[in-house]
Each structure stands twice: as C-alpha cells, then as structure tokens.
Amino acid sequence: METIDYTVAIPHRNEGADLAKTVENIQETQENCVHIITREDKENLGTAATRHAAVQEAATEIVVTCDAHMRFRPGALDELAAFIAADRTRVACLTCHSNPDLSFDENPLYGADLFEMGDEYALEPKWRKVKAPGEIACLMGACYGFARSFYESLGSPWKLGRGWGCDETLLSIPARLAGGSVHVLAAECAHLLRRPDEVMYRQTDAELEAIWYTRFALLEYLRPDNLDQLRRLMQSKCGRSFRMRAEVMHAADQLSRVKKLTFPEYRARWLVTDFRVEAPARELRQAVRIAARSGLPSVQEFGIRCPHCKQISDRHRVTTTYPNGNRRRLCAFCGMPFITRFGMDSTGSRPALKQG
C-alpha cells in the first residue's frame, strides 16, 4: 500500500476525555497521519460547519474527518487515505461498529442507502441493508475521507450546514453529481453509541431549527429537477420555509460548473424513490397551521395526545430519538408526525424538585 500523508480533522462539543482517547488511539494505530486537528464547536455552528473550519486548517491534500469518540483498527485510516489518493474524486467511509462498548465484534454497518423522500425529510440516509463493502449511495459511520481539492471544487459544501446533521449527504450527493464515487471500505472503525442521557449537551429549539435549515439548504444547493415538489413535501413535514443565505446559491453555482450527471440520472442509480408524490392539501394546511417554529408540532412526553387528531395513545410509533431525548412519533390513529419533549410536565416546563 502506498504511503500517503493525511490530516485527521475532529469536530467536537463537550467531549471531555473521549476526545483525548480518540486522538491517542489514532496516534497509536496509524502510521501516516501527520496532523490531527481538533476543532471545538464553541459557537454552536454544528458538525458540518465545524468540519469545514477544520478542513481549512489541513496541512495535506488528503483529509479524514471523524467523530471525537472512536477507535480504529491498525492501519484503517492509512488505507482510507491511500484509497482516496489513488482517485481524488472518491469519497469514502469505513465499515463502522456503532455500540456502547466501542467493540469491533458488534454488527458491522456499511454506509447508507438514500431515500428521495424519507420518513422525515428529503434525501434522508438510512443504514444500508447490504452487508458488504463497495460503492454506496451515501457515506455513514462517523469517519469520512476525501481530497481537499475535490471538496473545494464542489463549492465546499460543509460550510453550508447549520446544526448537527446532514454532513453525509452534503458531501456524498454532490460528489456523485460531479462524476466522483462514494465507497465504504472493509477497514474498520468503532463508534461510541450513547444513550440520550449520556450526550454531553442538549439541543435547543434553535439548534433543531438549524438542522431543518440545512435540510432545505441541501435541496437549494443540489437543485434537483423536482425541487419544487421536494420543497413542498418538506414544508408539510416541518410547517415552514427558510430564507437561504447567499453562500448556498454561490455553492450551487459552483457545483453546476462541475456537474457531470443530471439529477434524473443520479436518481435512477442511487435514490430509493418509493414515496407519496403529493400529500393531500388538507394535511398540508393542517401541518402548516399547527407546526411549531422549531419544526414539527410538539407536546409533552406524558399522556401522549396527538396534536393533529387529539387522540391519546401509548401506541404512537417512535421513528426517531434525538440526542436531547425528544422523540419523533407517528400517530397511531391519523398517521401524522409530531414530536414529544423529553422531561416536560403538562405545562411544558421541567418538573421542579420537591423540598423536604
């Protein structure tokens, strides 16, 4: 295997000892990493923007970025860097074992499939069902490698992100549209899977809103042929639209100059497209009317009543558990999505401790 120097960039937020252990593991198990950048998100910019800031500091052409709570097989990042250097239009991730014990014996995960309209938002990645390395639709697994020059030719997409989310799609989709390829390697990493109460921070409503902004920004950046349709469906999910910053349009223009695939060509090969074409107008009006400013309408966790149809049930299906403990659910009666807040009483406040 060719020796390729590379930089590892690690965005983090209140990681404590886990960050030091990750850095130490890289130093002990990888031979060709010449620079490790740790970038703390002190301004709550989110992972994508923090990754982008770290990439700008990289001393090498090949960059690997990873989470701050990981372990690596010996030589895994060296192999990733060499794979990228052999074709600098590649972006790639490692086979990932995500579990609370940082074990390499747990079920391996091999990147993500990509849904044109997922359960919650457009261009939503989900863990890939195929259990093998190879070409994939989307990166997933908390460790990604790429060539800095190729990243910049795409319009430096991570600088568009707000909040903690969408990093994988912001890199994977434009890479394909520009004629590049997306891969998962057999080389392995382990990622610390935390319970909600173990996360070192709590997402605020503003940060959840930032994630929704990034989901819309991704659409405006990529400019798919069905942009209006996907935009409407997204608005029906979160109940609002967003005004894009100028840099989103500038990045979109940059990407258009290097595109080699049309979006229909990309869709035909890489997207799962079995979604409802149009939500009924009644549902759209209802969702917009009652949606909270930060995203989906929300209710307290206790005695769960759907805010759409008002039915109370303990059978509302949980589809997503967020780092702050909030949960996205689908109503057992009307099927509409809503969010339940973690640790709130019936007034929407955190319960007070009783004295005495």
Describe what this molecule looks like in 3D.
- The chain is of the alpha/beta class.
- Helices cover 31% and strands 23% of the residues.
- It has helices spanning 17-29, 47-56, 76-86, 148-153, 167-177, 205-222, 227-238, 246-258, 263-270, 281-290, and strands spanning 6-12, 33-40, 62-66, 70-72, 90-99, 112-117, 122-127, 134-135, 143-147, 181-192, 271-272, 298-300, 317-321, 327-330, 337-341.
- The strands form three sheets. Strands 1, 2, 3, 4, 5, 8, 9 and 10 form an eight-stranded mixed beta sheet that branches. The chain has a four-stranded mixed beta sheet with strand order 12-15-14-13, with no helix packed on it.
- Helix 1 (17-29) links the parallel strand 1 and strand 2.
- Helix 6 packs antiparallel against helix 7, helix 6 (205-222) packs parallel to helix 8 (246-258) and helix 7 crosses helix 10 (281-290).
- It starts with 5 loop residues before the first strand and ends in a 15-residue tail after the last strand.
In short:
The protein is an alpha/beta fold.
Q: What is the string of helix and strand elements?
A: EHEHEEHEEEEEHHEHHHHEHEEEE
Could you describe the largest sheet, including whether it forms a barrel?
8 strands, mixed
State the end-to-end CA separation. 67 Å
How many helical elements?
10
Which class do the helix and strand fractions yield?
Answer: alpha/beta
